[in-house]
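User: tokens in, sequence out, please.
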């Protein structure tokens, strides 16, 4: 893996070079093993939190971890194109628009002891902007090359705060073109419902049951690129103990191994169906 500037990353994308890199400020990673008509994204995978912010933060490390999406990059790590955040959403949220990307409070609790220093605020927003500059270059290049593509927008969610049974996988589709892509959405939901999970966990999958797909990553790509489908795919945190901050590697492995084939097959069928 190389450490590259944003301009270097974008140049490599536009030249259709294969590479694996971390942004020079270590805010996100991008791997391109091959140029294919699908992308895997994990914008909430990151846990890093700048040291200069620690003393001013009211949330504990555990409270931050609880709301992040650990292992979502791990789920899709073998696929040809993977982009993932390294920084915590508590520093800046890549799944929110720039004007709302820095929290003042989070899940009912004030985040900062004192209002954020303008310099610290600016640094975080610059990271957010840099990520989206790369996303733009990547999707633009892939749309130009293939005509259409699909982005698998991987997330996870805490199930213990719900007072009802919730699905193991939720697809959020409120902001995509369901008339055009509905068949592909249903095919992805059906495929995920057939995951074989440890401990007899049934891979229930529903659409817009817990979340509707209102994230900025999805909206930015959908609004900017008319031939790209973004599938906001949320896994219930069956792969960890939310209360003890323990990851279950055997569950993570089972999901990752099966997504190797399921995701690849779905992407291939999508491209065959919608290519120009």
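Assistant: Sequence out:
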């Amino acid at each position: 893996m190389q450490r590259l500037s944003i301009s270097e990353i974008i140049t490599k994308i536009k030249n259709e070079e294969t590479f694996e890199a971390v942004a020079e400020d270590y805010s996100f990673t991008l791997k391109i093993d091959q140029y294919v008509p699908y992308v895997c994204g994990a914008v909430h995978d990151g846990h890093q939190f700048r040291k200069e912010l620690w003393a001013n933060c009211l949330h504990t490390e555990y409270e931050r971890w609880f709301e992040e999406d650990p292992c979502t990059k791990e789920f899709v790590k073998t696929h040809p194109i993977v982009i993932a955040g390294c920084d915590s959403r508590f520093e800046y949220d890549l799944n929110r628009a720039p004007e709302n990307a820095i929290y003042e409070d989070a899940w009912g609790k004030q985040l900062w002891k004192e209002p954020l220093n303008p310099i610290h605020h600016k640094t975080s927003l610059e990271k957010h902007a840099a990520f989206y500059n790369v996303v733009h270059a990547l999707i633009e290049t892939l749309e130009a090359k293939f005509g259409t593509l699909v982005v698998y927008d991987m997330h996870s969610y805490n199930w213990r705060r719900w007072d009802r049974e919730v699905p193991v996988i939720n697809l959020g589709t409120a902001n995509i073109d369901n008339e055009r892509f509905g068949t592909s959405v249903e095919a992805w939901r059906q495929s995920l419902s057939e995951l074989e999970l440890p401990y007899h966990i049934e891979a229930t999958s529903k659409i817009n049951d817990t979340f509707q797909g209102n994230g900025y990553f999805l909206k930015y790509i959908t609004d900017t690129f008319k031939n790209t489908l973004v599938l906001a795919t949320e896994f219930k945190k069956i792969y960890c103990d939310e209360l003890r901050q323990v990851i279950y590697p055997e569950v993570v492995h089972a999901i990752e191994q099966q997504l190797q084939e399921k995701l690849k097959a779905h992407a291939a069928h999508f491209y065959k169906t919608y290519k120009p």
